[in-house]
């Protein structure tokens, strides 16, 4: 087997540097996420565990990206030793497994985070349905990896008798399902945020935070398009952009999942800015009167990671179901267990 200089091609060098920076930024985001948890004295929950799992798999993908460059990425298959080519195709199997693990764990982190703050039964059921779809996405991806070629060894040895389905079609189909699940997850909180009894500015800010996932969806679309152009007859040369976006997408998804948790860190770093914003907000909400003021609970978010941390149906609402803000940072299961024993 022959090894090559990973920085020999400028495009490979630039992509490796870009992905290394993205993974480093995502790592910092996770650190800030846990610093925020410590500031708020919040318990580690499943959303945190899932995002750590996604990050660990992303490290593996970045390492494999470097190794792809080391064994001949961006060279034509005719220029490489047979051993290098076989390794590239074998690594592709592992690469897919790691990628799908990254993405499904990031999705589960989003959904478990939603369950921290949206505790209505209807939303809980919707989140569980999305979890089922994410699990189906992962299962379908795994089946595709191990069933697309019969026998399995034909993945890296095309001379064997047997059959392989179109990998371009398989990757594009699974990528489309990945996109659909992302859009469904992003759409979940839209209605609930609109029903919040809070200022329009706060609603827009929340839409902005949760809407960052649209950027990830754009990356997913780009990756799907790139996968359709991969020539598996000359994989070492044609895989370059697919390899790049397959690392960038989960790294950005992890960063996006951590952004809503960073408020306590920024508040600690820039207390004057947040104090000014809170004073303006308090004067605005203090002007409300009557039934609206009775239904609205002022946001005392001194240590909150969002302008809200826990949403429940407002008992003072009329025929429509609005939501009021509570300041607990507990999971739905913790709230239900307390109610069962008669705690407030």
Question: What report would you give on this structure?
Answer:
Residues 305-344 are annotated as: Disordered. This protein is mainly α and 344 residues long. The protein has a single domain (10-266), classed as Rhopdopsin 7-helix transmembrane proteins (Up-down Bundle). It has helices spanning 10-40, 46-70, 82-117, 121-147, 167-187, 190-194, 200-210, 213-227, 235-238, 240-258, 263-269, 271-286, 290-295, 332-340, and strands at 149-150, 163-164, 310-313, 323-326. The strands form 2 sheets. The chain has a two-stranded antiparallel ribbon with strand order 1-2. A two-stranded antiparallel sheet has the order 3-4. The radius of gyration is 24 Å and the shape is globular. The termini are far apart. The relative contact order is 0.14.
Properties at a glance:
344 residues, mainly alpha, Rhopdopsin 7-helix transmembrane proteins, 14 helices, disordered C terminus, transmembrane, SAT4-like, Rhodopsin_dom_fungi, transmembrane helix, Integral membrane protein
* Unreliable segments of 5+ consecutive residues: 279-310, 314-344
User: Structural class per helix/strand content?
Assistant: mainly alpha
Provide a count of the helices: 14
CATH-defined topology:
Rhopdopsin 7-helix transmembrane proteins
Side-by-side strand order of the widest sheet: 1-2
Radius of gyration: 24 Å
**Overall form:** globular
* Helical amount: 55-70%
CATH class: Mainly Alpha
Order of helices and strands: HHHHEEHHHHHHHHHEEH
How many extended strands? 4
> Termini distance?
67 Å
Largest sheet: 2 strands, antiparallel
């Amino acid at each position: 087997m022959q090894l090559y200089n990973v920085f020999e091609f400028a495009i490979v060098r630039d992509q490796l540097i870009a992905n290394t920076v993205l993974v480093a930024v995502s790592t910092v985001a996770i650190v800030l996420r846990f610093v925020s948890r410590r500031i708020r004295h919040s318990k580690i929950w499943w959303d945190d565990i899932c995002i750590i799992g996604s990050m660990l798999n992303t490290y593996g993908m970045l390492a494999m990206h470097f190794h792809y460059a080391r064994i001949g990425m961006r060279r034509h298959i005719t220029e490489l030793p047979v051993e290098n080519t076989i390794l590239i195709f074998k690594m592709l199997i592992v690469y897919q497994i790691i990628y799908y693990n990254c993405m499904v764990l990031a999705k589960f982190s989003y959904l478990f985070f939603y369950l921290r703050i949206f505790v209505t039964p209807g939303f809980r059921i919707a989140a569980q349905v999305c979890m089922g779809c994410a699990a189906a996405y992962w299962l379908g991806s795994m089946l595709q990896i191990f069933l697309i070629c019969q026998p399995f060894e034909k993945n890296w040895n095309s001379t064997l008798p047997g059959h392989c389905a179109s990998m371009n079609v398989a990757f594009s189909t699974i990528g489309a399902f990945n996109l659909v699940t992302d859009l469904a997850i992003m759409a979940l909180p839209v209605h609930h945020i609109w029903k919040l009894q809070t200022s329009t500015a706060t609603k827009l800010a929340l839409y902005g935070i949760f809407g960052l996932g649209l950027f990830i969806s754009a990356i997913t679309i780009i990756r799907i398009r790139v996968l359709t152009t991969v020539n598996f007859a000359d994989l070492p040369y044609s895989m370059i952009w697919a390899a790049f976006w397959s690392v960038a997408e989960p790294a950005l998804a992890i960063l996006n999942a951590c952004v809503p948790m960073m408020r306590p860190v920024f508040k600690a770093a820039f207390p004057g800015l947040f104090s000014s914003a809170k004073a303006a907000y308090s004067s605005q909400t203090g002007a409300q009167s009557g039934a609206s003021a009775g239904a609205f609970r002022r946001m005392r978010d001194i240590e909150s990671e969002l302008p809200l941390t826990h949403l429940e149906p407002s008992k003072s609402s009329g025929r429509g179901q609005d939501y009021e803000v509570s300041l607990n940072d507990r999971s739905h299961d913790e709230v239900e267990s307390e109610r069962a024993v008669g705690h407030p």
